[in-house]
Amino acid sequence: MRAAGLTVFAMLLLATACSERARRNPLDPLAGDGSVAGVVGELSAVAGDQCVSLRWDYRHFRDVAGFRLYRRSAGDAYVCLTEPPLGRDATGYEDREVVNGRGYEYRLGLLVEGEGERLLEPTAAATPGPEIVWCADRGTGLVWRVAPDGRNAAYAQGRFAGASGMDVDPIDGTCWIADGYASGMLYQIKLDGTLVRWPAPLVAPGSLRVDQQTRRVWVADQGTNEVWWFDPPDAGAGLRWAVADAHFTAPSALAPQANGCWVGDPQAGRVLYVHPNGARVEYVDLPGIEAMAVGQNRSAWVLLDRGYRMVCLSAVGRSQFADLKFRGSGLAASGWPERVWVAGEERVALVTELGVVVESWEGPPGAHALLADQLNGTIWVAGTRQLWKLSAAGEQMGTLRGFSDILGVAVLPARASAAQR
After folding, report:
1. How far apart are CA 224 and CA 100, in angstroms?
2. CB of 188 within 8 A of CB of 165?
3. For 386-408, how does the pLDDT look when each residue is reduced to its tens digit (9 = 90+)?
4. Least CB-packed of 53, 96, 158, 254 within 10 Å?
């Protein structure tokens, strides 16, 4: 008993000493690394549309009297954004004097009582832009609103224990989420982070895709092997669901186009284009369907044979089967006729319908999902644990790490109308 009491007393003394040191500014050598860890919120920058949100937290330190925030763009000197200085309790700043597409670097200065100003390292960088980016992480069940420069995230919403599908609305930028464990439910995340739950006639929601031209949402039901659709509701209205008049064995790949949808059924080796007006296009003997993406002129690209072959389908016929020199896992429209982006084996490749690689760049480990932003000339690639943003020349523009198992990425280059912001 005596030994236990001595241990507790020693711990109390240690805690008291650390607490006292932790009240000093983080640059004070007496503070020590051990007392600062978990207390300091270093400067972070989250890009937005014509704005950058800066955050920090040094309220734990009693001798920090205020802050100055500095900014510079490429080739320029730092300028002070906060004069007079911010108070001791300040933890953030919204910089709206920025231009989309231009990179900025920020630095924080601490005003320490009796010592003057001390500039902190590291700095924080951000490039604002109009893109709306969502990324779903199956491992954590979280859906992240990612900054347009791909370097940070604004917030996460969830948790979706069985996240199975996600996509973005092309008008309002909201994110639709399917959760295979959420029977009778579909989710929508608004731009401010609000989570909306919608009743749905689904037993086990699966793959979900949004028609980026018409806003129509398509969802595969893993429980009934049906494919459902609805149009986004008017204000105050509910979802009006309809089921595709077709039978599937196990639909798992969707590619909406022209108010209809290409549906991949791997177990049946079949791809079927369905439309509410009754139009049908069907292809069979397509083994090992891995992924699909819409092409031009009402066509769809399909990865086959576990990703080693591909083909382009349309209402008037198909291209010849093309052998890839690597295993593809994801597809994205390129904007060029007879070409498609393919992700797989830690690479991103622009491939012709004959399988010829036109461009090839390094991608994140486990690259399996991608989206080409043709408006801004960028490509977003999801690996298992990383999300990359690449330029049209293959330059790595942004990297976001810390995911556990990325389901996919959805990007809206810019909302349709400034009046809807």
Report:
1. 46
2. no
3. 999 999 999 999 999 999 999 99
4. 96
Strands 124-126 and 378-382: unpaired
- Tell the residue number behind the tokens 């420069």, with chain if given: 149
List of domains in the chain? 1-128 (2.60.40.10), 132-420 (2.120.10.30)
Which of 153-191 are b and which e, b meaning 16 or more Cβ less than 10 Å from the residue's Cβ? beebbbebeebbbbbbbbebbbbbbbbbebeeebbbbee
Q: DSSP class of residue 224? A: T
> For residue 306, what is the DSSP state?
G
pTM: 0.89
Element holding 79 (H helix, E strand): strand 79-80
State pLDDT tens for residues 92-125. 999 999 999 999 999 999 999 999 999 999 999 9
Whole-number Å distance between alpha carbons of 205 and 253: 13
In 147-194, DSSP assigns E strands to: 153-158, 163-168, 175-179, 185-189
DSSP result, 37-77: TTT-EEEEEEEETTEEEEEEE-TT-TTEEEEEEEEEETT--
The CA R_g of the chain, rounded to the nearest whole Å, is 25
What is the enclosing helix (H) or strand (E) of 331?
strand 330-333
Cis preceding-peptide flag for 122 (omega within 30 of 0): yes
